[in-house]
Amino acid sequence: MIRFExxxxxxxxxxxxxxxAFELDSLLRLLAGGGRLPxxxxxRLRSTFESLRRETDLDMVLALQSDRIGADxxxxxxxxxxxxxxxxxxxxxxxxxxxxxxxxxxxxAAQPATATAATDPRMRTRLxxxxxxxxxxxxxxxxWRVLVAPDWLQLRAICERDVVHxxxxxGRAGWSAAIADLHTALRWHDDGIEVSGISAEPQVIPLNGxxxxxxxxxxxxxxxxxxxxxxxxxxxxxxxxxxxxxxETPEPRTPGALTDLLGRSRALILTALSSPAGTTHLxxxxxxxxxxxGDHLAVLRRAGLVHRARDGRVVLYxxxxxxxxxxxxxxx
Length: 332
Known about the structure:
By secondary structure, the chain is an alpha/beta fold. The protein folds into two domains: 2-243, no CATH class; 250-331, Arc Repressor Mutant, subunit A, CATH 1.10.10.10. The protein contains 15 helices and eleven strands. A four-stranded mixed β-sheet has the order 3-4-1-5, with helices on one face. The protein has a four-stranded mixed β-sheet with strand order 2-6-8-7. The longest helix has 42 residues, at 132-173. The radius of gyration is 22 Å and the shape is globular. The two termini are 41 Å apart. The mean pLDDT is 86.
């Protein structure tokens, strides 16, 4: 068990942040370990991952990962809620070479004796090269752009909505309720935060007035994690609220009264938007064509039931307050 000792100053300085680099790191761990992936994108992610391993230096990144160990410099701590992948990539590229070498050596020493990084001299040579930081950064950037970026607008929106929810719980019910609401492994006890199930050895860690960084995550689901050493501030990482729906293939449910009002397809789409989603994701999950979903979303938007956010060519849809109220009323 890990216990964070929390003082008054820590409560004032604790904050939320979103970490694109941590999401990429977590997804790579899932893919390398054969873990469970979001149902709607599992096939694409696995095939793209294998292509990256053949065509890029991604195996250099994977060589630094083990069950509980990873190089901090390839997943730098986030500064806040507006963190972007380009911010993270700039920090990775600026890593001093001596620091990178020290972390690489530490990660390789922690690998099992049978691991590829421990037995393949060619991998050791690549990781000892003077351009190792540039090669790792380039591999991470390529992985981000084809593995995470296509879904990032949706994932970020879910994490942002999670932060709004947690802030509301904190304001209404205080820290004890807010921490317990994050994950079943977390609880507030005797002026501290206890985290069970993620550390073999008991640890007591004072926050010393610096506060705690709270990071909602997509790909950590259904687990929680903590950073207690290295360059990261003391951090709790927990699955964002509503993210589990991406791992499920629910039977489409047609709300009766809402169907009578909007028609079956629009009722299904509006109901499915309990979390923000893009047209492609909705089409996959509801077994509709992308064009049909787009047409129905346009009608729902004109009616004031959904709104959209654009990031380049990607558009993410979410219910408005009126849409939420309509779904709640017709499901009641």
